[in-house]
Amino acid sequence: MDMNNSVTLLTGATGGIGRAVAMELHLTGESILMVGRNESSLQNLQHELSELKADSSGKLDYLVADITDDADRDAILRYVQKHSAPVTRLINNAGVNVFGMFEDQSADTVQEIMDTNALAPIQLTRTLLPYLLEQAPAEIINIGSTFGSIGYPGFSSYSASKFALRGFTEALAREYDSSTLRIRYFAPRATRTELNSSHVEQMNSELNVHMDSPSQVARELMAFIHSQKHSASMGWPEKGFARLNQLFPRLVGHFIRKDLEVIRQYAKASLTA
What we know:
The chain is α/β, with parallel strands linked by helices. The chain has one domain: 3-Layer(aba) Sandwich (Rossmann fold), CATH 3.40.50. It has ten helices and seven strands. Helix 5 links the parallel strand 5 and strand 6. Helix 1 packs across helix 7 (about 215-225) and helix 4 (about 105-135) runs parallel beside helix 5 (about 155-175). It is globular. The N and C termini lie far apart (about 45 Å).
């Protein structure tokens, strides 16, 4: 794929992982269309990246849009259709996460998680699909999670949303297996971003769960982009547990059960934070 005259559309560009991914893309000279809901944050990121490497051949552009909104998704399509360079890569990165036991989550919280993490990227893909097919070769990369392969207590809604995104990616990739459009899936493990509260970080520390930095995730994603893999996950033992969970879910459940009281303790504490 020749990226010298094409653009990567990155959703959730101003979040922890999104910002790091935008930086890595820019450092390699790629043009980026950064999509987010906050114009001030997008402007600041654009300025930060332009100062980072002023001689980069890649162009930096942004678009204020809420991908959970039908009209905004249509606006994204109209924008890329008029863009001077073709968008040949869509990275569905935008996401939200709320830590807590399912019984304590409101209907609105569950709806927001499912809308943002699953329905919005699916609908944005549907909106942009005809356009991307015209730009062939092109690719769609959906950013999932280890919890898209392992259902984990305290993250029931989040796990459900990422399981849905992983299943969608797999099915759509098979639909277009003989085409020049690639649909791919990349799953980080626990990452130290603003999506995770201090209670999550404290819990992970007590349970010896490793947390990657956004820059580590971005570097791994760049390696994945330049590989021929259809999917990839980050980190051991998480990758091993994800594979084991496919074959022996009850065994993985046994290991997780030992941590359940600690998880519940921090989840309940997060309610009063």
